[in-house]
Design goal:
By secondary structure, the protein is an all-alpha fold. Helix content is about 55%, strand content about 0%. The protein contains six helices and no strands. The longest helix is centred in the C-terminal third of the chain and has 22 residues, at about 155-175.
Length: about 180
């Protein structure tokens, strides 16, 4: 108790107590700093890696729903670690919806300048037909999403056809070449 009294008296005598108890006045607002520029978009994945990692597996979920009703797919023993999207924690029709939206979102990735094809050529984002082909994929994904929301396999058949057509339109122009070196021309 005596030590507290001595510390209090010393602090009060030196003026430190009033400074310690007085809050620092708020600084007057200053002009807002200019927003930092958006970071440059990076394209670490090649076009083939996007196809193999997003578009191909997502399309396959839609194609699988043509023959097997996703509502009938039983969850795996441990759905949280399932490698089958239809039998995972987010399985059945939800997996078809998510895969459809993955196609829609992946279309945006196909428009980022700077991405390369697996042969080192730039993805032809500047070609006049590229935006139309990408929009075809986006539209097909949206069609598949609406079909999955309806949980109607007949609509999934039509949606799968739209996905097949969108993929073929682009592949016929840019992928189906005599040699891989000729792709993306």
């Amino acid at each position: 108790m005596q030590i507290r009294t001595v510390v209090f008296v010393v602090l009060a005598w030196t003026g430190q107590l009033s400074q310690a108890q007085t809050p620092t006045p708020a600084k007057a607002p200053t002009k807002a700093k200019a927003a930092a520029p958006a970071p440059a978009r990076q394209t670490p994945a090649t076009l083939a890696q996007l196809m193999k990692g997003i578009l191909y597996p997502s399309s396959n979920i839609i194609f699988a729903a043509q023959g097997d009703n996703p509502a009938d797919v039983k969850p795996d023993k441990d759905p949280a670690t399932s490698t089958n999207p239809l039998a995972s924690s987010y399985g059945q029709w939800e997996a078809v919806e998510n895969s459809s939206l993955a196609l829609v979102e992946a279309a945006n990735l196909l428009t980022i300048p700077g991405r390369k094809c697996s042969n080192g050529r730039p993805v032809p984002v500047g070609n006049a037909d590229w935006p139309k082909l990408v929009q075809g994929l986006r539209n097909a994904g949206t069609t598949a999403y609406k079909a999955a929301q309806s949980k109607n396999q007949d609509k999934i058949l039509d949606a799968a056809e739209a996905v097949t057509t969108a993929c073929a339109n682009c592949h016929d122009k840019y992928r189906e070449k005599p040699t891989p070196a000729d792709r993306c021309k």
